[in-house]
């Protein structure tokens, strides 16, 4: 295998031009002129003894990859991705903690309490990665995560955080206007449906919740939202009755923004879990201990 060092700069110019389809756009990304990109690519073609692009004077596509370049590009891009990952490891400092969590858990539970972690650990900065993508600790630089599920995450240590219940809620104004007093009343009032994890077999939908209560109610059509925090917000704004999970809704109930209905709570088959590598770094242990302590105090 040839040494890479003579080719690295030219390879990056080629990768950028191939991905963006333009020497000009590649130059903008690399902070050089389009002529400089073209020269680097030409230099690489000369060194390799093979053309990398078909160059056209007209048409939308001025640059088209040759067949060998098409075959090589994915490996070259993967190589730069691995270089970036290695660089991140070199410059990552122990005082930055990356926490991955869903947008709903971040806004409804974690963010209102995170200042307490800063007070206890002022030398650790928290970087929140709020998404519901599949977890890849190495690829996304994650130190610790909070996820909603049943505890089945391979190669990670999972600690259950909450015993959750699921119940119906609405705003005080909605309650006064529609007066839903029994489960049968759900058939005549505006409804809100949480679809954030609707495909998960253990996720508590309205249908499963009513089935657990052996209630035969023909639910009307309603607003469908794939974000649990926005589901609660729409309920607080008076747009309908929603199913709430205790971990996300308890603060809103205590404040009076939401009202629980029917005096019925069903245990959830899913829970929030704290996830980390089997051998956690000290900063992860600090966060885990703080999180478990806060939850224990609130229960």
From TrEMBL:
User: Which stretches make up the HTH lysR-type domain?
Assistant: 6-66
Q: What keywords tag this UniProt record? A: DNA-binding, Transcription, Transcription regulation
Query: What sections of the sequence does the record tag as coiled-coil?
Result: none
Report the GO molecular function annotations.
Answer: DNA-binding transcription factor activity; sequence-specific DNA binding
> Matching InterPro entries, A to Z?
LysR-type_TF_proteobact-type, LysR_HTH_N, LysR_subst-bd, WH-like_DNA-bd_sf, WH_DNA-bd_sf
Give the Pfam families listed for this entry: HTH_1, LysR_substrate
Q: Name one GO biological process term.
A: DNA-templated transcription
Q: Which PANTHER family match?
A: HTH-TYPE TRANSCRIPTIONAL REGULATOR (PTHR30537), HTH-TYPE TRANSCRIPTIONAL REGULATOR TRPI (PTHR30537:SF74)
Q: Which family does it belong to?
A: Belongs to the LysR transcriptional regulatory family.
What is this protein's name?
A: Gcv operon activator
What is the protein's species of origin?
Moraxella caviae
Name of the coding gene = gcvA_3
């Amino acid at each position: 295998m040839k040494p890479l060092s003579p080719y690295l700069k030219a390879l990056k110019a080629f990768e950028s031009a191939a991905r963006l389809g333009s020497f000009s756009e590649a130059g903008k990304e690399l902070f050089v002129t389009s002529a400089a990109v073209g020269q680097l690519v030409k230099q690489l073609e000369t060194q390799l003894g093979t053309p990398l692009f078909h160059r056209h004077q007209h048409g939308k596509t001025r640059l088209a990859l040759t067949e060998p370049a098409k075959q090589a590009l994915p490996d070259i891009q993967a190589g730069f991705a691995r270089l970036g990952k290695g660089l991140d490891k070199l410059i990552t400092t122990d005082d930055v903690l990356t926490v991955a969590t869903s947008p709903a858990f971040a806004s409804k539970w974690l963010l209102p309490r995170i200042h307490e972690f800063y007070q206890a650990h002022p030398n650790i900065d928290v970087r929140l990665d709020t998404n519901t993508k599949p977890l890849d600790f190495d690829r996304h630089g994650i130190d610790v995560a909070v996820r909603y599920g049943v505890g089945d995450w391979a190669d990670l240590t999972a600690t259950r955080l909450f015993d959750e219940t699921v119940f119906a809620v609405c705003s005080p104004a909605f309650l006064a206007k529609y007066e839903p007093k029994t489960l049968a009343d759900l058939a005549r009032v505006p409804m809100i449906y949480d679809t954030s994890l609707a495909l998960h077999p253990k996720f508590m939908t309205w249908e499963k919740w009513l089935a657990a209560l052996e209630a035969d109610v023909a639910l009307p059509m309603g607003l469908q939202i794939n974000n649990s925090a926005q589901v609660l917000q729409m309920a607080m704004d008076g747009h309908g009755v929603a199913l709430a999970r205790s971990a996300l809704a308890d603060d809103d109930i205590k404040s009076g923004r939401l009202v629980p209905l029917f005096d019925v709570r069903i245990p959830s088959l899913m829970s929030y879990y704290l996830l980390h590598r089997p051998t956690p770094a000290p900063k992860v242990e600090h966060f885990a201990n703080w999180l478990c302590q806060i939850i224990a105090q609130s229960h």
